[in-house]
Amino acid sequence: MSVLVNKNSKVIVQGYTGTEGTFHATQMIEYGTNVVGGVTPGKGGSQHLDRPVFNTVKDAVVATGADVSIIFVPPAFAADAIMEAADAGIKVIICITEGIPVQDMVNAREFLKGKDCRLVGPNCPGVITAGEAKVGIMPGFVFKPGRIGVVSKSGTLTYEAADQAVKAGMGISTAIGIGGDPIIGTTTKEAVEMLMNDPETDGIIMIGEIGGNMEAEAARWLKNNMRKPVVGFIAGQTAPAGRRMGHAGAIIGGAEDTAAAKMKIMSECGIHVVDSPANIGVTMAKALAVMA
Amino acid sequence: MNLHEYQAKELLKRYSVPTQEGIAVNNSDDAVKAYKQIASDTGTKFVVIKAQIHAGGRGKGRIKEVPDQSGVAVVKSAEDAERVAKNILGNTLVTIQTGAAGKRVNKILVAQDMYYDGPSERKEFYLSVLLDRAKKQNVIMYSTEGGMDIEEVAHKTPEKIYKEWVHPNMPLLPFQARNIAFNFGLSGTAFKNMVKFVTNLYNAYIGLDCSMLEINPLFKSADDKVIAVDCKMNIDDNALIRHQDLADMRDKSEEDPTEVEAGEHNLNYVKLDGNVGCMVNGAGLAMATMDMIKLAGGEPANFLDVGGSANAQTVEAGFRIIMKDPNVKAILINIFGGIVRCDRVAAGVIDAYKNMGTINIPIIVRLQGTNAEVAKDLIVNSGLKVQSAILLSEAAELVQKAVNAN
């Protein structure tokens, strides 16, 4: 068992032959991820990184039995790439692309409704199941195998949290970067729920940021489903209202989506909320010690 | 990206959304010409002059240099138009949204007066289109309480706010447009005009990739026309890749010059009011670093995400941008090296530091991840007055010391 991706995942890369796709596919292969090929329209039939290139996702699925796709397609075409993957029967679609127009994602989300697939991202670092499969752009060596799951809207903050967990004597089961855009495929609550149900995960680190209501939704669900300790952090306690802080979704729109409001509800629902990002690892270690 | 009222109205016309007619000008001679044109077109001497800045509250706002002049004024003659244009243009408008510093006005909109008499009662409504993140749908939010601060209406009288969610991949449906017109209490010609107005307005919102489109007031005239009297339009920055014409409308003079400069270096920078500058890779870690500065007793002076490629050039550009702020008393560089190697970043910091000449404030560099130890040695052995940390908690302590020493 593990969440979303594991050593048996058959991964294809959309935008395989581009600069980003090539660089990260190489890193993923080095990590040991089972990359079975890639898609670049117009380059089907050729080989890249010793693996076949296909014109369409459908062709790739038929030829390789791929069930996971990672997308490095430029923003103007990325929503189309997501829908193509879903249409071809890919089960887990991980979209790394940053900068997709919001209305494209409104339409793509609608397209995915009722289909047997899960989208992670966009604008995310991807998913890693430590020691088994890296389907993302994260530095693999930081994620030493262990039993802590991570859910995060942010890339480098995910690496920071994983690093702290490892240094505090724990390791990582699966880390899920859900992305920092206003419309994303997998919500905080859905990612937390997967890790809560994962027998290989003993504790969950949940990292959010200003904007939207996903952390509050996750917290309300956790209140009645807290079977493992959850440590939470919200970035942007010092962010001004109305300004977009890097991520398209990181903008305070009202009283409900400030860091303070989110931290309050998370705390009330039983999450171990830390004020400082430096305390994520030690707090998890303490919470697990209490449980043991 | 924000647009000016006059730009937004030009764009709405492309979608057959009726707007208050006007001419945007940047000098008083053209203002007089525009006055004569509008007065002749409308057959009345009443004409409205509106300052064009990226901030609301213009009607109640005052010109700093001419305090009895407001940002929106009705004029009754060409001489009057010239006087008001001279009062406003080139001067500073202070409104509830601009802060005390105000904003310089470079353009005014000379526009028709819609508040003429006629057979029916005039009405002012509020209507906006935006994304409902939770429902993952666009929503039209509207109220009979036009011309007011909508947040206040939502707070005091939530029952006066209506919402119509639009199905993804579909236009605003006719029954929804009728719902809106009925809820506004309209009938006859005004009802039909409103149905057309909201249908076309939603098409404009989608077609222009708006992230927010607000019409306040949405006006029903005394002869039952439905008109956008004011318009606030924000375009989704991510969508500018497919709207070069909209990207060309960007008015950089409305933005913080340091933020514009940072953008030219591909740095994501937001100016804040604190005393500790920071430079970080990744937006989430950048926000977290700001929070940590606050917990250490300082106040963040900025948000600065250098992105995935932290090299000597970006670090130097980041240094220069942060140092432009005289309030900065210390700088924290926080890089989690994944794909980017920490030793390369350290070399970049050392180069940038040397290129910059004398830096008289403490610099704290926290490098973690790939080759972090090598990076720390590089910095320690550089002989520069740069403090080095590997753990985030160590960096926090160093910030605390730097803040307390000030």
Descriptive notes:
Chain A is of the alpha/beta class. Chain A contains 9 helices and 14 strands. In chain A, the strands form 2 sheets. Chain A has a 7-stranded mixed β-sheet, sandwiched between helices. A 7-stranded mixed β-sheet of chain A has the order 9-8-11-10-12-13-14, with helices on both faces. In chain A, β1, α1 and β2 form a beta-alpha-beta unit. By secondary structure, chain B is of the alpha+beta class. Chain B contains 13 helices and 19 strands. The radius of gyration of chain B is 26 Å and the shape is elongated. In chain B, α2 packs across α3. The longest helix of chain B has 20 residues. In chain B, 37% of the residues lie in helices and 24% in strands. The model of chain B has no long low-confidence stretch (mean pLDDT 92). In chain B, the strands form 5 sheets. In chain B, strands 8, 9, 10, 11, 12 and 13 form a 6-stranded antiparallel β-sheet that branches. In chain B, strands 1-7-2-4 form a 4-stranded antiparallel β-sheet, covered by helices on one side. Chains A and B meet through α4 and α5 of A and α9 and α13 of B.
